[in-house]
């Protein structure tokens, strides 16, 4: 072969590579991908926004609304508008505001100058109380939740919220778009998926980046503000247990961080519906062992509408997708006796009922979300929620849940189709997203720390429901977890921060893309078509179709 022919051949090979690289994204139809680990890149600047940042400071006076947010109802016909009025208080003695002092009203309509509909709602305050000398207590501003009903699907609504009977107590006019009609051929353009947001400079990068991708809906998979990395005097740390763990009588929080977060996020949350599920940083213990006060009070959930009656787990429909949000930190066991404790199995029973109601001819896609991943090969939080997986995986598998989204690990990982640690052509695709919302252990406990993961957890965590780590010394999971031996179910992992975008194209195809903070806005870190194969995999749905 002459040198000219050799060059031509080389050029052709290079061109083929370029085409392959620039071609269609990979697809789950090709079967399990070989595990890929991407080397640790620049993960940005995980330092909290200070209270002096204008984006977190109170910008309203009197009873004017702030921290305005929109959440979805169980279907496109309803939505929640939430906001805060009045000033929160911190101190040894705090006096809760009277929620009745200001009304909860939303005026809305199809044009900014035609807010012809009106809905009223409810208001509440919550307190975070620490009965220990020297600690500061907190009581919130008045938090309002108003449910709008009878909305048209796929329609832009303009709204103002507040109290129209008090001067200067109505918000400016905001607008949001309702989700498309429920049905197998109707889908939103882009669903953004984020977790572990917090309020750091990384958060601002993630949120700005996400907004440029124009999502129609945001899923926030827990760990919202990291207010529990602060003492009640406002002193923060990278790692609470390292810095304060032995010197404080209770795990403190600094609740004004919630208000800072609500203010920073308002431009997004007032115009793009956001659905939140709780993470471990929302537990926030206080007086009388009360937990989750800020989370439960500040967000609205379609809990009643979806029959759960709990802020911790609920479901909703968006076009041809049925979303189920589950709780990693409340009882997820089947009812009965577990570890000598009588458990109600309330969440599990609700999940059974909810799954049984899903009509796949109407909502072909079934997508679940919760905070702590079942399938994570990172060392941080490794195996934490094994008990939840043991209880619930078979049920989700039997109803052919398509995708699971989680957060918690501050790193990105996507699984091949997996069930019970085994590659399975009808298994679930688990995707864990991460962000730099807190600084805790970031430099030492994630992908950048090689080595063997321990075989047993030393202490069971009561919030995780007990001790199920024996599953890792015998049975299907044994020896199949570790950073230095990427298991076959782990398709792609990279300890980057960012956001994901899910674009469901039709009844069978959805494009998932991972957008890393360090990349240019139009580039993608990981991308795959997730393809449903209902002929092969719909095993239990009571109303099968497709
Ligand atoms: Fe977490």
Automatic annotation (TrEMBL):
UniProt key word Hydrolase: yes
Recorded catalytic activity of this chain's protein: a phosphate monoester + H2O = an alcohol + phosphate
Spans through the membrane: none
Domain Calcineurin-like phosphoesterase: 190-412
UniProt cross-references to Gene3D superfamilies, sorted A to Z: 3.60.21.10, Purple acid phosphatase-like, N-terminal
Keyword vocabulary terms for this entry: Glycoprotein, Hydrolase, Signal
Source taxon at top rank: Eukaryota
Domain Purple acid phosphatase N-terminal intervals: 65-178
Name assigned to this protein: Purple acid phosphatase
Encoding gene per record: gb10257
